[in-house]
Amino acid sequence: MKLRLMPVLLTALLSAALLFGGWFLYREFAVQEPLEKMVSSYEGVKQSHITINRNEVTLKLDLQPGTKLRELVHYINTEGKSIIGDRTVKLDVEEHSSEVLDDYWDRALFSVAEAMESRKYTVIPETLKELSAQYKNVAVTTEIDDKNVYVSLSDGTKSKFIILPREPETMGVWNNA
After folding, report:
1. How far apart are CA 159 and CA 156, in angstroms?
2. What pTM does this model have?
3. Of the residues 53, 71, 93, the one at which a domain ends
4. Is the C-alpha dihedral spanning 13, 16, 19, 25 positive or negative?
5. If exposure means fewest CB atoms within 10 Å of the residue's CB, which of 83, 89, 128, 142 is most exposed?
6. Three-class SS of residue 25?
7. What total number of domains does the chain contain?
8. 134: closest CA among 96, 97, 100, 159?
9. What domain range includes position 146?
10. How confident is the model at residue 175 (pLDDT cuts 50, 70, 90)?
11. Mean pLDDT within 101-112
12. What number is the average pLDDT over the span 19-24?
């Protein structure tokens, strides 16, 4: 019995295309698309892009000023639990900052870093409130959950969202600060 090379290669190629094509379609339409619709429907989310890997779900978000970041994270974790599973959720919030907001955050950064390092989280809102006297048009919101401290700065049109992890060993450099 002699095997012909062309039918064997064609069968292997067709099988691989069906297998990987089916996997891609499942991941796109049964996992990623429902999660993207859920996140995009949340009030304050202008645009979202989701990347799902084996161990991590990365959400690139474009948020409107005044969006409650902690509530959004809670919403994603509860409503998307069946899709996310045991993967970790990583947020990457697109920045629409201004010079005033950057200056505000630069002035608060050392006090906030010290509060994070010493785990005195109540100092953060106090520090930011003290700075509010110098920056009249800046609205500041601080929120906390079991994993992160969320700081939102807004001047009405521009916004800056900072997510500070509460775990000292993983804090390192705040890449979104």
Report:
1. 8
2. 0.78
3. 93
4. negative
5. 89
6. helix
7. 2
8. 100
9. 99-171
10. low
11. 92
12. 89
